[in-house]
Structure formats: C-alpha cells, structure tokens
Amino acid sequence: MADKLARKRTASSKKPPKPTPVLETGWNPALYEQFHDLRLRPALDLMARVPTLPKGRVVDLGCGNGAAGPALSLHFADRSIIGVDASPEMLAQASDNGAYKYCELGDVRSWEPPKPPALIFSNAVLNWVPGHDTVLPRLTGVLRAGGVLACQMPDQHDAPSHKLAREVAAALFPDRFSTPRPLHVRDMAFYADLLDGLGQADVWTCTYVQKMDASREEHPVVTFTRATYLKPYLEALSETDQALYLAQYSREIEAAYPRTAGRALWFPFRRLFAVVKIPE
Questions:
Q1: Rounded mean pLDDT of 111-129?
Q2: Residue-range definition of the domain harbouring residue 87
Q3: Domain check: are 138 and 233 in the same one?
Q4: Is residue 178 classed as helix, strand or coil in its secondary structure?
Q5: For the segment 149-187, what is each residue's pLDDT rounded down to a tens digit?
Q6: Do 78 and 202 reside in the same domain of the chain?
Q7: Residue 4 falls inside a structural domain
Q8: In this predicted structure, what is the pLDDT of residue 27?
Q9: Is the separation of the CB atoms in 72 and 100 below 8 Å?
Q10: What is the pLDDT of residues 189-241, one digit of tens each?
Q11: Are residues 83 and 195 in the same domain?
C-alpha cells in the first residue's frame, strides 16, 4: 500500500485536489454532534448496567459536549451531575445543556474529585488515555465506599475505518507517522482480571451495526472518524496535506465500505464496556 500511495502522492503534487478546510485544533463539537444518536446509544447501554449506588454525586468524566448529560440527569434524577472534560470547546457546550450542576476542566490522568462520588461515568474517553493498569485502580480509589466506575471505550483498532487511517498516514507522510500509534484499549480478559480484583466486575463487548446516510457528499465513515480518530493525524498536517490525506483516506474508505445508491450504509463499530462496584 505504501508504494501505491507514494505514486499517487507524486501524481497529485502536479495537480493537488481542492483543499479541505483546515480542522480546528482541539475538539469540534459541531462535527462530533453530527452522529449524536449513534454516539449516545452506547452511553445509554452503559448507564443501564450501573448497579445500585450509595449516596453521592455522579461524575461524567470526559463529558465532551455533554451528550450523555441529559440522560444521566434523568436516570439519576435525585443526584448532582458533574461534568469534567479537558476540552474547553466541548465543555462550553456541555455547560449550556442544563444537565450538570457545574462543569470543570480536568485531565482524566490527574483528575481528583473534591468529594468521593458515588459513580464515575466515563463514556468514550479512556481510549485516549494510556496506562489503564494504573488509571482504573486510581479512579476506583477516589470513589465513595460501594461506589461504581462505569466506562465504555471504542474497540475499533483493527477495523478498516481505523486501520486505513494509520496506513494512509504512514504511507503518505512516513517522516511524521512512521511510529505505530499507541493502542490503549486492551482485551476483555485484561479488564475482567483487573477489575475483579477491585470489586464486582462486569465486562462485555458489543458491535453496533450503525445505520448511516449514504447520500452524503463525504462518505459518512470519513465524517464519523474525522471527529475523533483522525484528529491526531489532521492536527499534525498543513491545509494542503490535510486535503491529500483526506482524499486518499476517502478513496480507501469508499472501497472498504462501498455505498449503493438509494440504500443506507451499515457501519459496524465495536465497543468495550467495563463496570466495577467497589466494596462497601
């Protein structure tokens, strides 16, 4: 694939494609929100598996744009919901939805609550954080007795949507992306073994077959990954190189997830869930 892409890049340099507008550095709430329902469903499924809680607050750790906030405030109506995120752009939007008592800037790797919460709810954030063998025990350690840590992480590393993102980056820009991208999400057995030593553990995976609008001008899988998985690649590139990267990635995605006129596109997406209730 590297040779094929290198030849295409040489040819493209003679007549570059129309540049794609530069993506903002940081998170883009509007882009992320385009697939609101698809991103929210795993959060609802995780919420449904949270066991009985002690008294105390609920922390939405890595709350992003606050997509799960309204559901959390309904599900845990008698509790204060606190939003924590490292992105000012996302946190500004989360603060406006009325679901949170307050929102605060915080990094998952170092965040500590002022009071031990009853629940730390972490939806699609720990996949960005290394060292789960130490991060998860640290998070359970700040819970109230009998409290719960509930997390969901995309487990899509080997799927074409993610594998092609890495391959295209390494082939087009080997000087910048020759080092393999770190994989932070481990297998189910790792989480089952780790969390079983901390309390009552519940670990499972689910592959969501996501229905997408195939009539979009941009392939919907490209739009979906641009909001999240492609960020580290796009943020490292100039406007011209972003356009080259997205053009080639789009071609590869079209082949991996072909569209048929008049029909929906079905995009399988695997996610890993882990819940642990610590002793009272």
A1: 96
A2: 27-153+185-207+270-279
A3: no
A4: coil
A5: 999 999 999 999 999 999 999 999 999 998 889 999 999
A6: yes
A7: no
A8: 73
A9: no
A10: 999 999 999 999 999 999 999 999 999 899 999 999 999 999 999 999 999 99
A11: yes
3-state DSSP of the chain: CHHHHHHHHHHHHHCCCCCCCCCCCCCCHHHHHCCHHHHHHHHHHHHHCCCCCCCCCEEEECCCCCCCHHHHHHHCCCCCEEEEECCHHHHHHHCCCCCCCEEEECCCCCCCCCCCCCEEEEECCHHHCCCHHHHHHHHHHCCCCCCEEEEEEECCCCCHHHHHHHHHHHHHCHHHHCCCCCCCCCCHHHHHHHHHCCCEEEEEEEEEEEEECCCCCCCHHHHHHHCCCCHHHHCCCCHHHHHHHHHHHHHHHHHHCCCCCCCCEEEEEEEEEEEEECCC
For the chain, give the mean pLDDT. Answer: 91
Are residues 90 and 164 both part of a single domain?
A: no
pLDDT-derived band at 261, boundaries 50, 70, 90: confident
Same domain, 111 and 192: yes
Q: Bridge-partner residues for 272, per DSSP?
A: 153, 205
* Largest pairwise CA distance in the chain: 67
Residues 55, 182: Cα–Cα separation, whole Å:
38
CA–CA gap between residue 101 and residue 277 (Å, rounded): 24
**Cα 6 from Cα 116, distance rounded (Å):** 53
Least confident of 21-30, 50-59, 77-86, 124-133: 21-30
Q: How far is CA 266 from the centre of its chain?
A: 19
pLDDT in tens, 5-33: 544 444 433 333 333 333 334 678 788 88
CATH of the domain at 161: 1.10.150.290
In this structure, of 2-6, 36-40, 80-84, 256-260, the range with the lowest mean pLDDT score is 2-6
Q: Do 203 and 96 lie in a common domain?
A: yes
Total domains in the fold of the chain: 2
